[in-house]
From TrEMBL:
SUPFAM superfamilies: DinB/YfiT-like putative metalloenzymes
GO molecular function: metal ion binding
Keywords per UniProt: Metal-binding
Entry protein name: Damage-inducible protein DinB
Protein family according to the UniProt entry: Belongs to the DinB family.
Database matches in InterPro entries: DinB, DinB/YfiT-like
Organism name: Pseudomonas nicosulfuronedens
Length: 163
């Protein structure tokens, strides 16, 4: 199920990114800046958990930055990150999925999650922030894409509508 869920995440992220690109930055600078800030936060959190899953040092001292990268950079980072998670899931064995990883959050507090829980966190985290972005899109007059799982399933497997 996680493999299918990450295919859904990648699909949803692309749709949100495409919608953000349609924000008129001159008329709606605050909404555009908010959307980029949310993308930046998503990318940083994905980087942090990717490092934790890989046994590497956290690449960021916090879950946001003062300077927010531009849209093109954030788009590339999120799409590349999504693909990394898809590839890691494809290689994840049941025993490895249950492995507990201990780490420190950026606030210094300790934590531990199984690998499987880390994947679920990234999936859920992205969904939460795409919801926030949807409100900014609404305020900027850009239709936000429906990104529910059922829309994904029927868009990618239209034969499931038959019957």
């Amino acid at each position: 199920m996680l493999t299918q869920a990450f295919a859904y995440k990648c699909w949803s992220d692309r749709r949100a990114l495409d919608a953000i690109a349609r924000i008129d930055r001159e008329r709606f600078p605050e909404e555009h800046a908010f959307a980029l800030q949310q993308l930046n936060h998503m990318a940083i959190v994905e980087d942090l958990f990717r490092a934790r899953l890989s046994g590497e040092t956290d690449p960021h001292p916090a879950t946001n930055t003062q300077a927010v990268p531009g849209y093109d950079e954030l788009r590339e980072r999120l799409l590349t990150s999504g693909q990394w998670y898809v590839e890691q899931l494809a290689a994840l064995t049941p025993d490895c999925a249950r492995e507990v990883i201990r780490f420190r959050f950026t606030d210094g507090r300790s934590g531990s999650l199984t690998r499987e829980e880390m994947f679920f966190h990234i999936l859920n985290h992205a969904t939460y922030h795409r919801g926030s972005i949807a409100r900014a899109l609404d305020q900027a007059g850009v239709a936000h894409p429906a990104d529910t799982y059922t829309v994904f399933v029927h868009a990618t497997q239209p034969e499931r509508r038959e019957g």
